[in-house]
Design a protein that fits this description.
320 residues; single chain; mainly alpha; LivM-like; two-stranded antiparallel sheet; transmembrane helix; ABC transporter involved in vitamin B12 uptake, BtuC; membrane; globular; branched-chain amino acid transmembrane transporter activity
């Protein structure tokens, strides 16, 4: 596998292996819970990237996708105790349908108009959530959702496995011909059309995939908290964008790592009290200014560059 021949791939595999053994070497359940949530943020960022990072269609309303899965779970669980093995595929179906229905008209918009349309959709969802409080719970949300498992360890591994599978599938799609076509659309859509590529079909498919993974992640987080509400859904439109851009867009894994890094950073900075927002903002500004391609894209490029330089040095040494 080419992935395993790349040192970056080996580092990712070692990092994943460490996450699998972490609960076995630590009994810090607070940290285990934080890591569990960060796995879902990785999926949020990766699902945003497959649409916006690959096609250039900046989705400013990613929370609408998450709300589909989360509130679908909330509605159903108010009638009967639905388990994750059933709620997750249901969320996938609902989210795909939503992605297609919304994607067909909005993806015709270009430039900032698509971003504004996606932001408007998320805002409409938020207003509807508050207005129809008898169904959605309003600002208080919906409680009583069945938990993922009976304990934090089980939830940790459930969310980790879910994240690994989701990011793995998204990464595979990004590396496939499908991902290459999406990037060609981002580079020059008119040229892609001239080559016979049905750009609308590919953009709608990316939109549906983005919605599907975000919707499933919204369902998983609802099961994890036993609750779904506006406070854990609608701020994610901006937060997911920040995570993806800071990590690096157009490659799935850098964006996902950005989700992991930012979610952990947010939690670690809580100890700084009223200074946490200032420190958080400064870190984001520095990363954007000095690493405009993203933290993990820049790190990956540095590793790749060092690896490519080494054989050149060795060859020049042999000649001497």
């Amino acid at each position: 596998m080419k992935f395993l021949k790349d040192i970056r791939g080996i580092i990712i595999l070692l990092f994943t292996a460490f996450l699998f053994i972490f609960p076995l070497i630590s009994n810090d359940f607070y940290l285990i819970n934080i890591l569990s949530v960060s796995f879902i943020y990785m999926v949020y960022a990766g699902s945003w990237d497959i649409l916006s990072g690959f096609t250039g269609k900046e989705n400013m309303g990613h929370a609408a996708f998450i709300a589909i899965g989360g509130y679908m779970l909330g509605f159903i669980s108010s009638s009967f105790a639905i388990k994750p093995w059933l709620s997750i595929p249901l969320a996938a179906i609902f989210s795909i349908l939503f992605g297609i229905i919304i994607g067909i008209p909005t993806l015709r918009l270009k430039g900032p108009y698509f971003a504004l349309a996606s932001l408007a959709i998320a805002s409409i969802f938020e207003k509807l959530t508050i207005s129809y409080s008898e169904v959605t719970g309003g600002e208080e949300g919906i409680f009583g959702i069945p938990f993922l498992t009976e304990g934090p360890m089980g939830s940790y591994y459930f969310m980790l496995i879910f994240a690994v599978i989701s990011i793995g599938l998204l990464f595979y799609l990004g590396k496939s011909n499908f991902g290459l076509i999406l990037k060609s659309i981002k580079s020059d859509e008119e040229a892609a059309k001239a080559l016979g590529i049905e750009t609308t079909k590919y953009k709608v498919t990316a939109f549906a995939l983005s919605a599907m993974f975000a919707g499933m992640a919204g369902t998983v987080i609802g099961h994890f908290y036993g609750y779904i509400g506006p406070d854990i859904v609608y701020p994610l439109s901006l937060n997911t964008l920040i995570m993806s851009v800071v990590g690096g867009i157009g490659g799935i894994i850098p964006a996902a790592l950005g989700g992991f890094f930012i979610s952990l950073l947010t939690e670690l900075l809580r100890g700084f009290g009223e200074w946490n927002q200032i420190i958080y903002t400064v870190i984001l500004m520095l990363s954007v200014l000095f690493l405009p391609k993203g933290i993990f894209v820049s790190i990956g490029n540095l590793i790749k560059r060092k690896k490519s330089i080494k054989p050149v040095i060795e060859k020049s040494g042999d000649k001497n």
